Amino acid sequence: MQYIKYKRILLKLSGESLRGRESFGIDVSVLTEIARQIKQVHEAGVEVAIVPGGGNIWRGVVASNRGMDRATADYIGMLATVINSLALQDILEQQGVVSRTLSAIPIQSVAEPYIQRRALRHLEKGRVVIFAAGTGNPYMTTDTAAALRAAEIGAEALLMAKNNVDGIYDIDPSKNPQAKKFHHLSHKEAMLQHLNVMDATAFSLCMENNLPIIVFNIQLSSSIERVVRGESIGTVVDSND
């Protein structure tokens, strides 16, 4: 890899992207390919931190809507992200990429506690850092966790890896073939047009910290590498009008 636009990134992996074509859980072949892409940019000198979602295993909002206590449902969701984090760590280690999982809730037997300075130290030592358990608080999505951790580690961009979604559209492209794809938006434009980039709390964090958001399809070959090179393969949302 020659030119690198973003040298420290926060990669947000949706739970659905880890599920692949499975109806539930983790598709190991998909996880292996994602790990290969991470290794590719890591070996090129990019510092990589990752926040996995948990929707391939558990959805707290759905459980809450069916009568479960919301806080309890969200804590279960945090544990689902720990499962995904450990699976990703294992695959990365198998590929020779030294990785560390830091959890926002205490779970010392399998992960280090999240401490900002420790996370920064791991990145400086060339390790991939995986942030598990969201923010550690109920009522907060993993999108919010991704925006928060990206700000805390000084990431140059937040990469929103989607499953077969190649960017941001004005309407749902799966329902309307006339949907228009945006290649570039400012934070202000995305907010004014009420585009579903991420939840409002996460988006506000990105906007306040002038953090670029790149929404792209993780299923594309070498997609992470292409994003960090600055190639236009998805939608970029930043502070530039």
Description:
This protein has 241 residues and is an alpha/beta fold. The chain has one domain (8-190, 200-234): Acetylglutamate kinase-like (Carbamate kinase). 39% of the residues lie in helices and 19% in strands. It is built from nine helices and eleven strands. The protein has helices spanning 15-19, 28-43, 60-65, 70-94, 116-124, 142-153, 187-192, 200-208, 223-228; strands at 8-13, 47-52, 99-103, 112-113, 128-132, 157-162, 168-169, 181-182, 184-186, 213-217, 235-238. The strands form two sheets. It has a nine-stranded mixed sheet with strand order 4-3-5-2-1-6-10-11-9, with helices on both faces. The chain is globular and about 50 Å long.
Quick take:
This protein is an alpha/beta fold. Helix content is 39%, strand content 19%.
CATH homologous superfamily grouping? Acetylglutamate kinase-like
Give, in spatial order, the strands making up the sheet with the most strands.
4-3-5-2-1-6-10-11-9
Content-based structural category: alpha/beta
- What Rg, in angstroms, do the CA atoms define? 17 Å
Name the overall outline.
Answer: globular
Our count of domains comes out at 1
Distance between the termini: 29 Å
The percent range for helix content is 25-40%
CATH class membership: Alpha Beta
Strand content: 15-25%
Order of helices and strands: EHHEHHEEHEHEEEEHHEHE
CATH structural architecture: 3-Layer(aba) Sandwich
Instruction: Summarize the main sheet.
Output: 9 strands, mixed
CATH topology: Carbamate kinase
Q: Helical segment tally?
A: 9
